[in-house]
Fold this sequence. Notes:
Helix content is 32%, strand content 26%. The chain has eleven helices and 15 strands. The strands form three sheets. Strands 3, 4, 5, 6, 7, 14 and 15 form a seven-stranded mixed β-sheet that branches. It has a six-stranded parallel β-sheet with strand order 10-9-8-11-12-13, sandwiched between helices. A two-stranded antiparallel ribbon has the order 1-2. α3 crosses α4, α3 (121-134) crosses α10 and α9 crosses α10.
Amino acid sequence: xxxxxxxxxxxxxxxxxxxxxxxxxxxxxxxxxxxxxxxxxxxxxxxxxxxxxxxxxxxxxxxxxxxxxxxxxxxxxxxxxxxxxxxxxxxxxxxxxxxxxxxxxxxxxxxxxxxxxxxxxxxxxxxxxxxxxxxxxxxxxxxxxxxxxxxxxxxxxxxxxxxxxxxxxxxxxxxxxxxxxxxxxxxxxxxxxxxxxxxxxxxxxxxxxxxxxxxxxxxxxxxxxxxxxxxxxxxxxxxxxxxxxxxxxxxxxxxxxxxxxxxxxxxxxxxxxxxxxxxxxxxxxxxxxxxxxxxxxxxxxxxxxxxxxxxxxxxxxxxxxxxxxxxxxxxx
Length: 332
């Protein structure tokens, strides 16, 4: 089988297409013939050895797959060859076949595109955990979403609306703003590019405050970080919840007096650890997402597709911070 491998730390240009033996399922595993692998920002970091997990090399990046069960290992029940599945596997997805623990699989509904299936779990499962479990988002509250046109950003817009919130999306271009409006946001603001000096940071805070209204944002969803975090926090409501999701713009430093003045919470969102620690609740979240998808209340948006041989280009696309929705690598 073909695999796109990271042999040395570096950027997407260091990835090599190679031939590997087909995997065999171990006890409790199934072999999935991968049809699509979604690309996420952790894939940018993991090949540079900047992610919190550093798999031994050589390894294939790509943590979110959709495909067809090809073989079933000893002790596996409920799955059979030919079943359509989706899974989050951490890494190893940019391959034609991969052995996966059966417990990590979810069923891909019939008639659904493999690329869209690959784009569902990581972004939407992260977001429903963030908004429901960490943010306690309630009907009628205001949700501010930074980086609202990215994969997790659009998921936050759609899920925020599905949960009955007023959603304000924040993006860096008018093109992205159009996508966020299409996803259902009640209001969209276009913010300038950082880095910001003191005056620019203050101006951005005022822009956020004007958009969310005088009460402030009850929940702020931040998959961006960097110089955007402090201005957004200044727009939070009394006893609001600030959700820390990611840092493509850099890891921010917060003046903690702001949390005192607003009596607000700053909440980390680590979906992978949550899913491992509380698989029952996570499974319930995934079932809810599949029901929403079937009802048309959410819809993974795949905007760029690449063949496996150009998987490095797919990862490189995320480094530009210009991507709207999800980028997916297809193996066939």
